[in-house]
Amino acid sequence: MGLTAGLGAVILKTFVHYIRKVIIHDYHFKLQYYIYLFLPLIGILLTVYFVKKVLHGKLGRGTANILHAISKKSAILPKDQMVSHIITSSLTVGLGGSAGLESPMVTTGAAIGSNFARTYHLTYKDRVLLLASGVSAGIAAAFNSPIAGVLFALEVILADVSISAFIPLIIAAAAGALCSKVILKEGILLSFHGIKPFNYYFTPFYAVLGVLAGLVSVYYVRTFTYIEKIFKPSDKANVYRKAIIGGLMLAVLFLFFPSLFGEGYESIKSLADTMPEQLLENSLFSSYSSNAWFVLFFIGVIILVKVFATAITISSGGNGGNFAPSLFVGAYLGYFFSKLISMLGITQLPTGNFTVVAMSGILSGVFHAPLTAIFLIVEITGGYELMIPLMMVSASSYAVMKYFEPYSMDAKKLAKKGHMLTHDKDKSILSSLKVSVIIETDFHKVKPETKLGELVDVVAHSKRNIFPVVDDEGKLLGIILLDNIREVMFKTEFYETVFVKELMRQPAATVTSDESMRAVMKKFDETGAWNFPVIDDEKYIGFISKSSIFTKYRKLLIKSNIA
User: Which helix (H) or strand (E) holds 477?
Assistant: First the structure.
C-alpha cells in the first residue's frame, strides 16, 4: 500500500515538475509574457473538460470527500479516483493554478487503499485502516516526511484509533517516503537549510506569532468559504464560462503578484534564504525591488491575496488543495512579522526561523492538525532545533482557530450536513446512521373522517399505539396516540358521533428521510418524545423511534468492536 500510494504521489509530483519545466522554464523567454499569464486559464479549462467528459462531472475533492466516504459509504471510494486526481491536478497546478498537490495526493492514496481493501474483501475497519495508510504514504512521499504522514492520517482521517493502527500506518509512510527519497530529485521536494538554533530570548515574539497565525488562519478559512459560495450558484450553469471567469481573474492577480503562480514553493525558499526581492520579478512593481519597505508591504499584501487565488483556482473548476497554500501563507507571515520587527529596530529576529515556524502555525490552524504541522517542519528542516517555537506557534494558532472555528475547513462542510466523522466513537457511530434505513412503516393509517367506532376496530388489530392521520393524497394531518383516546374508546355512545379529526393531535416534531441523526436526536431530547413521523414533500412515509435508533446503534457498536 505504501509503495503504491507513494509511487502515485511521486508520479504526480514529477509530472507537474516536468510540465512546469517544459512549458514554463524552457520556453518562458520564448513566450510573450501575457500568454504566460493565461496558462492557468488553459489548465483549468482542460481540467473542466476532463472532469465533464471523462468523469461525467464527478471528481470528489479534498479530505471532506474521504471523510464522507468513511462516514456514509463504508469507506468505499470510486476506482477512477486512483488516477483522476493525478491527471486533473497536474493540469491545474502544472500550468500555474494557485493550489497545492498534497490534497490530490491524499485522495489518490485513499482511493488506492480503499480499492485494495475491496479487492481482498477486507472488513470495514481494515478498509478504513488501509485507506488511511494510503493517505499516510501520500503525505510522506510529498515531503519525504514519514512522521508527518502518520500524524496527518491520525489527526485528519481516523476517528477511532487503536495502538495496533500505528504499525501499518508507519510501514506505509516509510515506504511512501522511501519512494520519494529514491526517485525524486532534491529540487522537487520542499526543504530548508541554514536554520539557526533556537534563542529563548525570542520566545515572546514566537508567542505573538502564534496568535497572529491563528487569526490569519481564521481569515483564510472564512475568505475561502465565502469565495466558494460566490462560485457555487453557477455549479449547474456553464462550467466552461465559470472556468474562463476564474482563469481571467487569476491572470489579473498574477500580473501584480507573480509568486502566486503554481504551488509557490520556489518563493517560500526565496524568503527562507532572505532573498525577497526575487518575488517582484516579472511583476508590475519590479522597479521597486530595491525599496525594502515596499518589498515588505508587497509581502504583506500577498498574505491576504493568496487565499483569493487558491479559492478561485479550485472553485472555478481546477483541482488542488489548501495544504501548499497554507504553508505559503505561513512562510510569508513569518517573514513579514520578523522583518517588520527587525526594520522597526526592536530587535533583529532570524527571518529564516520565523518563516518556517509560521508555516506550521497556518497549517495547524487551517487543518486543525497541530502535530502534523510540527513534525512536518521538523522533518523538512532536518532537525529538532526549532521544536520549542514550533510547539508554541502551532498550539497557539490551533487554540485561536478552534475558538472561532470549531471544525477544520473540510470537516465544517460535513458537520453542516450532519455527516461529520468525529473522534468520539459514540458520535461517530451515531452520525453513520441514516433515517431512511431506520424508518418503520407498519403503522395503520386512518382518515380524518374515520369514526371512533372504526378507529377502535383498527386499534384492536394493531400492535402499535400510534396511528398517523392522512388525507387522500397521503399528506400527514396529525397523529392519534392510544393514551390520548383511552378514556373515550370504550364509550360506545361516541362511536358514530366522534371523528378522528376531533381526536388527532399534531406531533411534537417531524423529520425528513435525509435529515442527520444528530439533528433527529436533538429533537428527541428537546421534545421528550419517543416517536416522530417521517415526512418527505409533506407526504407521510413512516415513523422513526428512539428505541429503534438505540437498537441499531448497539448492533453497530458490537460490530465495530468485533471488527
Answer: strand 476-481
Instruction: Please identify every stretch of the chain with a pLDDT value under 70, giving residue numbers as ranges.
Output: 23-34, 159-161, 186-187, 233-237, 415-432, 557-563
Question: What is the phi-psi region of residue 510: left when phi exceeds 0, alpha when psi lies from -120 to 50, beta otherwise?
Answer: beta
Among the listed residues 5, 501, 561, 29, the one whose alpha carbon sits nearest the alpha carbon of residue 282 = 29
Q: For residues 95 and 38, give the distance between their C-alpha atoms in angstroms, rounded to a whole number.
A: 9
The three cell numbers of residue 37 are 499569464
Q: What is d(CA 152, CA 141) in angstroms, rounded to the nearest whole number?
A: 13
Residue 81: closest CA among 97, 98, 117, 105: 105
The pLDDT value recorded for residue 25 is 58
What amino acid is encoded at 80 in this protein? D
195: left (phi over 0), alpha (psi -120 to 50) or beta: beta
Q: Would you state the pLDDT for residue 64?
A: 80
Interatomic CA distance for residues 243 and 241, integer angstroms? 5
- Cα–Cα distance measured from residue 368 to residue 394, given in angstroms and rounded to the nearest whole number: 10
Placement of cell 390520548 in the chain: 484
Among 20, 44, 88, 24, residue whose Cα is nearest residue 248: 44
Alpha helices in 257-322 (DSSP H): 265-272, 292-315
Which of 541, 562, 559, 537 minimizes the C-alpha distance to 433?
559
- Give the pLDDT confidence score for residue 365 in this predicted structure: 94
* pLDDT score for 30: 45
What is the chain's alpha carbon radius of gyration, rounded to the nearest angstrom? 28
Nearest of 199, 191, 137 to residue 4 by alpha carbon: 137
Of residues 140, 75, 131, the one with CA closest to residue 108:
131
Q: Which residues pair with 321 in a beta bridge?
A: 100
Comparing CA positions, the residue from 51, 76, 52 lying closest to residue 65 is 76
**Cβ within 8 Å of residue 479, ≥6 positions away:** 466, 467, 468, 469, 504, 505, 506, 507, 533
Per the CB < 8 A criterion, the answer to whether 131 and 108 are in contact is: no
Q: If you write DSSP's letter for every residue of 221-259 in order, what string do you get?
A: HHHHHHHHHHHGGGTTS-HHHHHHHHHHHHHHHHHH-GG
412's grid cell: 465544517
Identity at 541, one-letter amino acid code: I
- Position of cell 472564512? 222
Give yes or no for a contact between 487 and 475, defined as CB atoms under 8 angstroms apart: no
DSSP conformation class of 316: T
pLDDT in tens, 254-265: 989 988 988 888
CA distance 41 to 55: 20
Find out whether 376 and 145 touch, Cβ atoms under 8 Å: yes
Per-residue confidence (pLDDT) for residue 426, from 0 to 100: 58
Cα angle for residues 517, 523, 524 (degrees, 5° grid) = 90
Where do we find the cell 502535530?
371
Angstrom CA distances, 222 to 230, 264, 334, 401, 483, stand at 13, 22, 21, 11, 51
Closest Cα to residue 355, out of 424, 428, 303?
303
